[in-house]
Amino acid sequence: MRGFSIQHISAGVTAVIVGYSSAVVIVIDVAKRAGASDAMVVSWLLALGLGMGLTCIAFSWLTKVPVVTAWSTPGAAFLLTTIEQYSYSDALGAFIVCAFLSLITAQSRPLLKQISRIPPAISSALLAGILLPLCLAIFNDVNEFPYIVALFLSVYIAGSRFFPQKLMLVLLALSLIVTVFMHNQASNPSYSFLLAAPSPVWVTPTFSWSAAMGLGVPLFIITTLAQNLPGIAIHHINGYFPDHKPILSGIAVVQGILAPFGGFTFNLAAITAAVCMGNEVDKDKQQRYKAAIAAGIAYLIVGLCASVIVALFVSMPKVIIHLLAGLALLATLQGAFSKSMETQSHRAPALLTLLCTASGFSLLSLPSAVWGLGLGIGLLFVQTRKDKSA
Fold first, then answer.
1. Distance in angstroms (rounded) separating the CA atoms of residues 138 and 248
2. pLDDT digits (tens, 9 = 90+) for 173-189
3. H/E/C letters for each residue in the chain?
4. Would you state the torsion angle of the CA atoms of residues 69, 74, 75, 78, taken in this order, to the nearest 10 degrees?
5. Mean per-residue pLDDT over the chain, rounded
6. Which of 2, 89, 113, 357 qualifies as a cystine partner to 372, CB 3.0-4.6 A?
7. Predicted confidence (pLDDT) per residue in 62-85, tens digit
């Protein structure tokens, strides 16, 4: 860990906690609805932890850019509503179809170039729309837990003034302390199987046209547009411009390899990546990749200790999750808001993108982020055509 600061480590660990705690229950539910046994559910969590850990470490080290990967939370939400219609092996086959489509897309430099040409105002508004609900959640539990919310806000305000470089670490430590004192169903019997030692469980995938079209293709579209696009945007917003072709290609290959063990999706992270890219992580932006490597190491530990670690995340009170995630992302939200409104001619499309994305609806199996992006680009196109014809 030579050359790593406590800020790098705390940012990486916070990113993992934010990512896991906000969606691990959904992933467990998806696996159970797919027909996974208890051992298979643990295998899913093991595969996801190892896959995210290896890709974070490898690509961050090779590019010297903070590359944070994640599972697709919108994709998992989509699977919740559809995966029960297919057999377990067909679902695994659909995950491989999704990985294959992602690999093809990653190999298309023109497509990636078109994605990168999206105006910063629109991509910033997309990111702001994704972050806004998480930051608003800081105040979701004021009525039920007023003293806990007041405690976290007080520490955040004081820390912003007296120890900004160690603020995330302090909030992380405070989260663990408060969780211990709250004793929030630490031995929930619904997840008692997670206390077993994790081990990979191979199931041979099968392929069917219905699963490929009903699961694989929509999962690919959602992951590409709602996850990888914001992931590319967060790099550009923070001044990082790596070659995303080998990164996305490698992520797709890892998904294809780990799909039979339960690795349903891997993609660039946006929200958790933002935690590793702020000024509080390191004043030298060229050194912030170390926070992503720290996140990768934390992912590996979570994967190898999946049974115990996931039980902890499941038992963490929602009020703590809301506060930790929201406060960690406030600075990123502020930056995204500012950049989305910088160019006057782009403000209306950016605002439409932001509001639509933040609404959180889902239509035709596509999340609000996809619709927000489409509406924003559509309005920008109409305005541009209008200005040219004037």
1. 33
2. 788 788 877 764 444 54
3. CCCCCHHHHHHHHHHHHHHHHHHHHHHHHHHHHHCCCHHHHHHHHHHHHHHHHHHHHHHHHHHCCCCCEECCHHHHHHHHHHHHHCCHHHHHHHHHHHHHHHHHHHCCHHHHHHHHCCCHHHHHHHHHHHHHHHHHHHHCCCCCCHHHHHHHHHHHHHHHHHCHHHHHHHHHHHHHHHHHHHCCCCCCHHHHHHHCCCCCCCCCCCCCHHHHHHHHHHHHHHHHHHHHHHHHHHHHHCCCCCCHHHHHHHHHHHHHHHHHHCCCCCEECCHHHHHCCCCCCCCCHHHCHHHHHHHHHHHHHHHHCHHHHHHHHHHCCHHHHHHHHHHHCHHHHHHHHHHHCCCHHHHHHHHHHHHHHHHCCEECCEEHHHHHHHHHHHHHHHHHHHHHHC
4. 170
5. 83
6. 357
7. 999 999 999 987 788 778 778 888
CB 125 within 8 A of CB 335: no
Indicate the pLDDT class of residue 385, thresholds 50, 70 and 90.
confident
Chain centroid to CA 226: 10
Helix pair 289-304, 6-34: axis angle to 10 deg = 40
Q: Summarize the confidence of residues 356-379 as an average pLDDT.
A: 81
